[in-house]
Amino acid sequence: MAEHKQEEIAFFGKITAAATHEMKNVLAIIKETTGLMEDLILLSPEMPASLREKCQSTLSVIQNQIKRGVDISDHLNWFAHCTDVPTASMDLSTTAVQMTRLAQRFAKLKGVVLEVKPSEAPITVQVRPVFLLMTLFTCIRCCLNALSPGSRIVLAPGEFDTGLAFSFLMKEKDATPDALFSALSADAAWSDLRQMAAALEGTVQWVPGGPSIRLLLPDSSP
Amino acid sequence: MKERTLLLVDDEVEFVQTLAERLQLRGFQVHTAHDGDEALIQLEKNRFDMVILDVMMPGLGGLDVLKQMKPLYPKTPVILLTGRGSTNDGIEGMRLGARDYLMKPINIDELIKKIDENLSRD
After folding, report:
1. Which member of A25, A36, A39 has the closest CB to residue B83?
2. Which domains does chain B have, with CATH numbers?
């Protein structure tokens, strides 16, 4: 039922946000425990050097994974809080950075590098946060479907001559803009994207000069 | 150097025990509490050079402990530990009188640096 949709989304976000908080506590315990093991190794001069080095390098692997877990948890927490309200003021660069991180696994599975180039000045827009993120993800999905492994996508928000937009630059060696657009327009996701852009009161453009997809937003700065 | 006494307050028992042990290895005397009420009882019984206080705890949370302890122990500095995605709790805590805050998972060297900085101010 449409009237409960926002409540459903907010519920999903609330539970997810709480779980990410729990996850941070788990990671904090693991971090302190491995830290204590490092301390105890340092206090054990009788330990053979080769064993000491092996223990320290193993603990270093755990510490790196803790950092990775914290990073994922922080991004998921931000994502979960996007469901708090139906509309909000969103900074385009923060949104682009977060979306890039959240979509990394999808890009990695396709063998494509996904990067972000934030704008220098803050740019905000009043928008439906979850729907904007869904639309950005659909843009990324369109790019991933059209590109070959080894390619790059650069997500760059900014103020263009046509207005506020997210630009998705598609870099594939030896691919022409025409070939890329041909692949894009044959994809069912491209049609979804155009509908989603319209629902945001924006538009999606193909910019052969990039070549890039440009998601234009209505200028609704608060 | 005089041994410094800390009160470490967090509902995550393994976290508190492990961090306490690491701080003891570094020369601190550490008391622990696992909730806000226990923390206030400890503060009544002992004098502490510094309180390390988790924000999110069941029952009496860290910010509530801070509000209650500040009028009673105004000279006891507090460093907050927050696990939230944003820094709002830390900022609110400093408005309530905490000296500083750290996001979990913490870096023990950073915690000790903040303890040293704040104790040398007093």
Report:
1. A25
2. 5-121 (3.40.50.2300)
**A17 contact residues in B (CB cutoff 8 A):** 85
Report the residue of B11, B84, B102, B111 to disrupt the A interface, i.e. the one with the largest count of A CBs within 10 Å: B84
**Residue A222 clears pLDDT 60, i.e. is over it:** no
Residues of B with Cβ-Cβ distance to A24 under 8 angstroms: 83, 104-105
The interface predicted TM-score of the complex, written ipTM, equals 0.87
Average pLDDT rounded to a whole number, residues A149-161:
94
- For residue A33, give the amino acid letter: T
> pLDDT by residue (tens digit) across B36-67?
999 999 999 999 999 999 999 999 999 999 99
Span A34-54, mean pLDDT? 95
Q: What is the mean pLDDT of residues B68-87?
A: 87
pLDDT of residue A19: 94
Q: State the best of A23, A24, A32 to mutate against chain B, taking most chain B CBs within 10 Å.
A: A32
